[in-house]
Design a protein that fits this description.
Blueprint (H helix, E strand, L loop, with lengths): L3 H12 L3 E6 L6 H13 L4 E4 L9 H11 L4 E3 L13 E7 L5 H16 L4 E9 L7 H6 L9 H13 L4 E5 L10 H8 L6 E4 L5 H10 L3 E4 L1 H5 L3 H10 L6
Parallel strand pairs: 1-2, 1-8, 2-3, 3-4, 4-5, 5-6, 6-7, 7-8
């Protein structure tokens, strides 16, 4: 099994280097907008593209990824909302298990159905413990998952959930307040989780300004993911990328 990108995640974490991922929802971009994002991301030295969404109702997932790959060397990692969101043109797949919820379909059920297809895709598979945290507003992911998010002030619940995910064999932990969240995950919760796991920690949802991205990294996030804010203002890519990459090593 390929492990090139996962090894990169591990090496960057061990070196204390923070990463920035731009989230692209194929339903919300056309060719012109994608080209603009690619240009800005390349200039800003973005580390990863995450591609996917809670729905992805359009049929151009493959086309979107091929456009990215033809104009950029930035790795493309699928962030799927369902087992159907798999493309052989990507580099890797976040194989998400919703460990914060109690919906068996998203904990293991859909994985059983998708396993043969995913294994034959040729993608690098990144087993990821996915944790949805209350961001102050109903989100698509909470509605689709039919799962109650972790309360924003329950740091111990988040910590124990992440610890359990790591001990169950997850290679990454992804904490997400959801697209369009009114508030991002607190630094206190991030710090609590980061201090108690050894695997890379990804943080997304509600991050709308460079200062917040910087503080999240200082608190212990290894990868910052921004999508919704960049859809509204693509030029935030440069500012947030600079903020993430300016965090002192081992801060």
């Amino acid at each position: 099994m390929k492990q090139a990108l996962y090894q990169q995640f591990i090496e960057r974490k061990q070196a204390g280097r923070k990463s920035f991922a731009v989230l692209i929802d194929p339903d919300k971009v056309d060719n012109e907008k994608t080209d603009q994002l690619l240009l800005l991301a390349t200039e800003a030295q973005v580390d990863y593209f995450f591609v996917g969404g809670s729905l992805v109702i359009s049929s151009h997932l493959d086309d979107c990824i091929r456009q990215i790959k033809s104009h950029s060397n930035i790795p493309v990692i699928l962030f799927p909302g369902s087992p159907s969101q798999v493309s052989k043109y990507a580099d890797a797949l976040l194989y998400l298990s919703l460990i914060s919820g109690r919906n068996p379909e998203l904990l293991i059920g859909q994985h059983v159905i998708s396993a043969p297809f995913v294994k034959n895709s040729g993608l690098e598979i990144l087993p990821t413990g996915y944790m949805v945290v209350d961001g102050g507003a109903p989100t698509t992911v909470s509605y689709i998952s039919n799962a109650t998010p972790i309360p924003a002030d329950k740091n111990e619940i988040a910590m124990c959930t992440a610890m359990a995910g790591e001990m169950l064999g997850m290679k990454l932990i992804y904490m997400d307040a959801g697209s369009g969240a009114k508030r991002a995950i607190t630094e206190a919760m991030i710090e609590k989780v980061a201090r108690n796991i050894e695997i890379p920690l990804i943080i997304g949802g509600g991050i709308t300004e460079p200062e917040k991205a910087y503080r999240n990294c200082k608190a212990g996030a290894d990868v910052i993911v921004v999508g919704n804010a960049i859809e509204k203002d693509p030029f935030l890519i440069k500012e947030i990328s600079h903020a993430v990459h300016s965090v002192p090593v081992n801060a």
